[in-house]
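ping. complex inputs:
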Amino acid sequence: MPKLKLGLYWAAACGGCEIALVELREKILDLDAAAEILFWPVALDYKYHDVEQMPDRHLDVCLFNGAIRNSENEHIAHLLRQKSKVLVAFGSCAHTGGIPGLANLYSRAAIFERAYLTPPALDNADHLLPQTTYRLAEGDVTIPQLYNTVKTLAQIEDVDYFVPGCPPQPPQIWNVIEAILGGSLPAKGSVVGANDKTVCDECQHARQEKRIKKFYRPHQIIPDSAACLFDQGILCAGPATRGGCGALCPKVDMPCRGCYGAPAHVADQGAALLSAAASVADASTEDEAARIIGEIVDPVGTFYRFGLPASLLHRAKT
Ligand code: SF4
Ligand code: SF4
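pong. complex structure:
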């Protein structure tokens, strides 16, 4: 039986998705036995040129991690779509925008100003900003253009499957690989490597009726390990997050941050979590409710930590 032709790519992301693949441990040998990796820039010395030379749809599957942050990310996404039978948005950043998506709170101009003009330790008297082309005696140098808005892979290309998680959990990655090898993938557009429950459904912390007078950040309180973190005022995204990770974070008394994205029945993860928080505020007046909710630090980073680009908001107006 011919080996599966596999490509892997890393766009705007931290590299954790690549590490998660290595965490398959001994199963990586099974992957090696079943698949021939034809493109994996982080591990193998293949060039873009090698991909350009492939016939269209030459790769059976491409696992694409990372958001679309710049013109290079977009160019390679289009190229890999053309060269792959199945394109998978792999991990939170490709799926919902991920942590890089929080840059959508700012404009490109504001980010350039903060990075290149105002840092106290930077000497940039000529107020130079990155240019996409620069002429040197040796020839023109080009760099990718940073986009004003971070996008998900599906916002610029046709995606066949979505594997959520920051990063996807190795047992779930293996389930996906087995489904690919066995030809048992579900309908196009499905989220795979997860389930249809919420993180709360997989969590061992006991839930009671919630009456919250004050929300805490994790470092401000030592929680009761048996009780639901949300019940104790720690904003846990479990009720608004797709299951599949085994409730990894609550297992160690840390709140879920929402990296598996919204469950199938939820249109906007952040709005669902905000609604959950507002509905448990123990307030007798509107002012008191506003005070309790208003004390939540970093609301966008709390409610939309992994999914601002995929949300109904997409980005801030700047
Ligand atoms: S809110 Fe968090 S701690 Fe509570 S049951 Fe859900 S996942 Fe567990
Ligand atoms: S508990 Fe939440 S943040 Fe933690 S791995 Fe699972 S989905 Fe991601």
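The beta strands are 4-10, 35-39, 59-65, 68-70, 84-90, 133-136, 139-142, 146-151, 161-163.
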